[in-house]
UniProtKB/TrEMBL annotation:
Lineage, top ranks: Bacteria, Pseudomonadati, Pseudomonadota, Gammaproteobacteria, Enterobacterales
Domain of life: Bacteria
Protein name: Phage virion morphogenesis protein
Record InterPro entries: Phage_virion_morphogenesis
Length: 45
C-alpha cells in the first residue's frame, strides 16, 4: 500500500487513511548499465 500511495483502513471498522506514494529503492535500467560499464572498465585495466 505505502509504495503505491493507496488508501487503507486502520481497522475493519476504522477510518480510511491515505498514504503518500513512497517508491521502493532499487536500480533503474540506466543504473544497471552504468554499473556494468564501471565494472567492465575496471576489469579492463
Amino acid at each position: 500500500v505505502h509504495q503505491f500511495g493507496l488508501s487503507e483502513e486502520t481497522r475493519k471498522d476504522g477510518k480510511k487513511i491515505d498514504y503518500p506514494a513512497r517508491p521502493l529503492l532499487g536500480f533503474t535500467g540506466e543504473d544497471v548499465q552504468m554499473i556494468e560499464e564501471i565494472i567492465l572498465a575496471h576489469l579492463d585495466r
